[in-house]
Amino acid sequence: MFVTDHLAHCTTRVACTFPGGAEGTGTAFVMNLCVEGSNAIPVLVTNRHVVKGAVTGRFWFTLRKPNANEPDYGKHHNFELDNFSQRWLYHKTLDLAVMPLQPFIQQGQNLGYSYFFSPLTPDLLPSPEELADLPALLDIVLVGYPNGIWDEKNNQPIIRKGITATHPELDYNGRPEFVIDAACFNGSSGSPVFLLELGRTVSRASGMTIGNSRVKLLGILYAGPMHFATGEVRAVEIGQKTIAVTGVPNNLGYVISSRAVKDFEPVLNFLNKNGRLPARNEACPCASTKRYKECCGVTS
Fold first, then answer.
1. What is the secondary structure of the chain as a DSSP string?
2. Which CATH number fits domain 3-226+249-294: 3.30.10.20, 3.40.50.970, 3.40.190.150, 2.40.10.120?
3. Could you tell me which of 151, 109, 193 has the C-alpha nearest to residue 12?
4. What are phi and psi for residue 138, nearest 5 degrees?
5. InterPro entries per the record (predicted)?
6. What is the maximal distance between C-alpha atoms in the chain?
7. pLDDT of residue 186
8. Measured between alpha carbons, how far is 55 from 260 in angstroms, rounded to an integer?
9. What is the mean pLDDT of the chain?
10. What is the pTM of this model?
């Protein structure tokens, strides 16, 4: 498979139901964390606001062709989970959440399902040196489900292009995030944002190099600024006057820097080793000297 084919298989659509029956959709992607040799902990990564408070949630994995490491398009398995909000680990300060996937992969295998997806790996995270060598104005792609739109038949996301609007090395307004110039809509929350260079790479040190390609996970989309248009809507039949307020996207998106996903690794390692999360009053696994409930467990 070509590199862009793998990008199309790293995400899943997330559909949530909230108290009172409200529904929402978002994007999650599969990533391997806590990698040690051939061992890793696969997780789903999304935004906290996508799943926090959800009563039930669904996501989809494409099935693998029998005896072949290829997607069996048109065939996929739907996971539907109760107590969805409680199944995630939440970042203590950022709009991020992860959910360990191995129990669901094993559950599917017990039912005879073999899944095809392309997990992202830590080597896709740009190092500080790589970020410093990137010039301003980079081509990016984001993969997700804007307004919940997807190829339901083939379980495929929507891939969109854009450019960086601020440099991903710099913390925008003092936060570990940057801005992209791309069409960002509800449902795209949780989308991975990639630097994608095919057939040429650019850097501050070397300029443009023809023939090379590069893919890096720059961050996770979580929000975007909007301006509001107001207009008068008249219901002539009954003479009522209503003012409609419409949010208009600015075609900008706020993206959490990808290095933040590594913040989950201490708790994931603890969970993997002990088969449970830390008790509220235990020392936090991140070695902050705080208790878990005051640190990485503050919002979980």
1. --HHHHHTTSEEEEEEE-GGG-EEEEEEEEEEEEEETTEEEEEEEE-HHHHTT-SEEEEEEEEEPTTSSSEEEEEEEEEEEESGGGG-EE-SSSS-EEEE-HHHHHHHHHTT--EE---B-GGGSPPHHHHHHPPSS-EEEEEE-GGG--BTTTTB-EEEEEEESS-TTS-GGGSSEEEEES---TT-TT-EEEEEESSEEEETTTEEEET--EEEEEEEEEE--EEEEEEEEEETTTTEEEEEEEEEE-SEEEEEEGGGGGGGHHHHHHHHHHSSPPPTTSBPTT-SSSBGGGTTTS--
2. 2.40.10.120
3. 151
4. -120, 150
5. Peptidase_S1_PA (IPR009003), Peptidase_S1_PA_chymotrypsin (IPR043504), SEC_C_motif (IPR004027)
6. 71
7. 78
8. 26
9. 90
10. 0.90
300 token code pair: 């979980």
Residues composing the chain = 300
Domains of the chain: which residue ranges? 3-226+249-294
Residue whose token pair is 């209503």: 242
- Separation CA 29–CA 141 (nearest Å): 14
Question: Degrees (nearest 5) of the Cα angle 14, 19, 21?
Answer: 75
What gap in Å lies between CA 263 and CA 82, rounded to an integer? 26
CB atoms within 10 A of CB 53: 13
Range with lowest mean pLDDT among 17-21, 32-36, 65-69, 243-247? 243-247
Q: Tokens for 133?
A: 């060598």
Structure tokens at 13: 């659509």
